[in-house]
Design goal:
410 residues, alpha/beta, formyl-coa transferase, domain 3, 13 strands, Rossmann fold, three-stranded antiparallel beta sheet
Length: 410
């Protein structure tokens, strides 16, 4: 039985190591909400502050119903929603009242917006001395480019990832997914937890300044290090790997693909045995890793001919039994039906007002103790107004109706 709500109120005793921690979110799109979701998956009570006049764009992507948009549904599980018109003085004061009863404030809104609203870190400290403020910006909050805004493709381009993605010998093609958003979101959640640990030890809150570009640059450190040592610019290299050969994706039957990575000569011999081509191991072009890497184009052509008519699952199982790292390249449909992931409870059933029970991607960790329950889907806009205004702020029903009538609760 789903226990996301009791008598119309959210279940705020979900367990988890962050139970009792309250997080206010002024976030939009992906990176900020992703950080909030990870904290919620650890048991924090995460309250998203939004309004009809200032919606999260994700409530509009992929649908016409702001409570039914697939992108928003996918990234806001276990989040509470409260409406505040932050463009009004009374709305700003309500937000300040919430800050006084919270532990963390996360924002990824435009640079300078918090400060212009009187919600910069120093102003938040005046409200609650030990508050932790986490700010996610493209370039952080200072420097000559601290005023710039951007989306995940911008993070990947400016952080150096795009210059490495492409076919070997070709131009940079970049990455067409939200790797930048999810990476910086996870880094922000990590930093927020570390700040909580510091506060527990010292009693001090702090300002956490997260740069999305720096977050992406930290993910390509090996390429930067190599360039610094050798002076050779890092360029797209397809699936090539300097320390492994073969290393790539090879076609199999029915449009499927098999990923193979060979790190040593014994593994190479095992691969040749598994493909019934022991003679390849004796080919003068492929006898050592260095030779295989040098002749990788011809090697990939040979392997593709050997795999293209084979069943990907059977071949992957056969090669792994011989000690070769070989795995099917999963499609999204494959992932949804993956019994291993279902068996590990990676997929969780949650319930929300419009969708009913549906599966989501759960937390990518397992905790033997103090694991948080995950059972509530993404919130409708303002779904938890009553809980926030009555239970947390202690306002009367009459006052709440007045706020709604004056469009402060918008």
């Amino acid at each position: 039985m789903l226990d996301a709500q009791v008598n119309g109120m959210p279940n705020t005793s979900r367990g988890g190591p962050l139970q009792g921690v309250r997080v206010l979110e002024l976030t939009k799109v992906w990176a900020g909400p992703y950080a909030g979701k990870l904290l919620a998956f650890l048991g924090a009570e995460v309250i998203k502050v939004e309004s009809n006049s200032n919606l999260d764009e994700m409530r509009a992507y992929g649908g016409v119903d702001i409570n039914h948009a697939p992108y928003f549904l996918s990234i806001n599980s276990e989040i509470l929603s409260v409406q505040i018109n932050m463009k009004t003085a009374e709305g700003l004061q309500l937000f300040r009242d919430m800050v006084a009863k919270s532990d963390i404030v996360i924002n990824n809104i435009r640079p300078g917006a918090m400060e212009r609203s009187g919600l910069g870190y120093e102003q938040l400290r005046e409200i609650k001395r030990d508050i932790i403020a986490v700010s996610i910006k493209m370039f952080g909050n200072d420097g000559p480019l601290g005023h710039q805004t951007g989306y995940a493709p911008c993070f990947a381009a400016l952080g150096g990832l795009n210059s490495l993605a492409g076919y070997e010998g070709g131009p940079p093609l970049g990455v067409n997914h939200r790797y930048g958003d999810s990476t910086v979101g996870a880094q922000a959640a990590y930093a927020a937890i570390v700040a909580l640990m510091h506060r527990q030890r010292t009693g001090e809150g702090q300002f956490v300044d997260v740069s999305a570009v720096e977050g992406m640059s930290s993910m390509v450190g090996d390429s930067l290090f190599e360039q610094g040592l050798t002076g050779k610019s890092a360029v797209p290299d397809g699936n090539a790997h300097a320390d492994m050969a073969p290393h790539g994706c090879y076609p199999c039957r029915d449009g499927t693909w098999l990923s193979i990575a060979v790190a040593s000569d014994p593994e190479w011999h095992a691969l040749c045995e598994g493909l019934d081509r022991a003679d390849l191991a004796k080919d003068s072009r492929f006898m050592t890793r260095a030779q295989r890497y040098e002749h990788r184009s011809g090697l990939d052509e040979q392997l593709s001919e050997l795999t293209k008519e084979q069943d990907v699952d059977a071949l992957a199982n056969h090669l792994r039994a011989l000690g070769v790292a070989a795995f099917k390249s999963q499609s999204s449909v494959n992932l949804i039906g993956d019994q291993y992931l279902w068996g590990r409870d990676f997929f969780r059933f949650v319930s929300d007002n419009k969708e009913g029970a549906r599966p989501i991607l759960g937390a990518p960790w397992r905790m033997s103790k103090a694991s948080a329950s995950i059972s509530r889907g993404a919130p409708d806009l303002g779904e938890h107004n009553a809980y926030v205004y009555r239970e947390i702020l202690g306002l009367s029903d009459e006052k709440l109706q007045e706020l709604i009538g004056n469009r402060i609760v918008d």
